[in-house]
Amino acid sequence: MANLRAIRTRIKSVENTRQITKSMKMVAAAKLRKTQAAFASLRSYADESRALLETVSAAPDAGGDNPYLQPHAELRKTCYVLVVGNRGLCGTYNQALLRFCEQRMREDGRESSVITCGRWGKDMIAAAGITVDRNYEISDAPTHEEALELTEELKRRYREGEADEIVFVYQHYRTVLSQVPDTVRLLPLERPEGKADENPVIFEPDRETVLDSLLDLYIGNTVHALLLEARTGEHSARMTAMTAAADNTEELIRELTLELNHARQAAITTEISEIAGGAEALRNNTAGG
Amino acid sequence: MAKCFSLRVITAEGTVLEGQAEYARFETAEGSVGVLAGHAPMLCALPEGIARFRMEDGTEKRAELSSGIANVRDNTVTVLADRATLTD
Predict the structure, then answer these.
(1) Do the Cβ atoms of A158 and A191 come closer than 8 Å?
(2) Which one of A56, A175, A269, B44 is most buried, counting C-beta atoms within 10 A?
(3) CB-side exposure of A280: number of CA atoms within 13 Å?
(4) How far is A62 from A195, CA to CA, in rounded Å?
(5) What structural domains does chain A harbor?
(6) Please, what CATH class does the domain formed by B5-87 belong to?
(7) Model pLDDT for residues A215-224, shown as the tens digit of each residue
């Protein structure tokens, strides 16, 4: 009988787990939709500014003075921007990224500084021997303001020579089911390839100022897009992990129910055979007496 | 009726304003720039400030912009700014 009760308690607790994993899956799905919508609204803005930038920077002498297009004379210090998740429970999303980052830093072997974006694993990152000199709180659906705040700091570090390159280490989003750790160099910028405008264009106040503003928009957009991509991946990974967990609880509940039925049947059979045995013994007694 | 051009104000959060406009005025570092239909191609760096538009139906609109770019070409004006708040 104790066995029956134990199984029932177990089923109850697995059912609770199923409830929790299911709601977490739903929350992740809702957040995923939110980041995807933000991505969609950023897209037309980013596309327009990129297209403009391409035509403006196509002139051979363009951007001569812009600090973000010029590589530093010597590449000594790298600033890594590690975009970890805000929470765990999303499969290997964070761990895989951390391992990848460690390896990448070892291979580069340069002097480096690290900025993290996300609340996950402060102690895990420290245990991996990575010293974080600044953490940015980036919400689950990164806003443009958050992206710009980070952008300003990155631009400052590059401009003032605190870093000779700025590299993002993040989970590249391929599909809902697949994210791959990847790096993207933000600064110095690759000079965008494009065709110069055939028609004469008036620049107000002048070409360099227009190009500088375009580059500012472009860098901000790139950072925002990278943050959105990383968060989209995080929500997808969590959704996948929680779907798997919820499916596993279903399976477990099925097995436990079967076990419960077995045990109950066994108990009933025992009881019946005891009663039958008792009755038989009683009849034998009366018949004999 | 005055001639119109198509106007779009785009920010990172999406399109804030879209429609036919008669007149647009931007504040640049060197003073105001006015745009009417048929303006020559122009790229205009905009510092933080206010842009004014008169729409096809005669309504006036103001947009508070963060720094950005106005692109005038083929009778279309596209304003790109990180933030834009629309007021009447």
Answers:
(1) no
(2) A56
(3) 6
(4) 13
(5) 25-242 (3.40.1380.10)
(6) mainly beta
(7) 999 999 999 9
User: A204–B43: do the CB atoms touch at under 8 Å?
Assistant: yes
| Among the listed residues B32, B3, B21, B27, the one whose alpha carbon sits nearest the alpha carbon of residue B77 | B21
Distance from the B63 Cα atom to the nearest Cα atom in chain A, whole angstroms: 17
User: What are B12's two structure tokens?
Assistant: 């990172």
CA distance A199 to A7: 79
**Roughly what angle, to the nearest 10 degrees, separates helices A207-288 and A2-57?**
170
Cα–Cα distance, A100 to A122 (Å, whole number)? 16
Nearest 5°: the CA angle A120, A224, B78 is 165
SS3 A12: helix
pLDDT digits (tens, 9 = 90+) for A185-203: 999 988 777 777 677 888 8
Of B76, B2, B5, nearest in space to B41 by CA:
B76
| Residues of A with Cβ-Cβ distance to B83 under 8 angstroms | 144
Question: Nearest residue on chain A to B14, judged by CA atoms?
Answer: A41
Length of chain A in residues, anyone?
289
Tell me the CA end-to-end span of chain B in Å, nearest whole number.
22
SS3 A87: coil
Helix and strand numbers (H, E) in chain B are 0, 9
DSSP secondary structure letter of residue B33? E
The residues on B that touch A, with CB distances below 8 Å, are 10-15, 28-30, 33, 40-46, 67-69, 71, 73, 78, 80, 82-83
Q: How far is CA A249 from each of CA A112, A215, B38, rounded to the nearest angstrom?
A: 44, 51, 66
Cβ A202–B41 below 8 Å, yes or no? yes
Q: Which of A34, A43, A45, A219 to mutate to test the interface with B (most CBs of B within 10 A)?
A: A45
pLDDT at A288: 64
Which chain B residues are within 8 Å of A204, Cβ to Cβ?
Answer: 28, 30, 33, 42-45
| Residues of chain A neighbouring B74 (CB-CB closer than 8 A) | none
Whose tokens are 């303001």? That residue is: A145
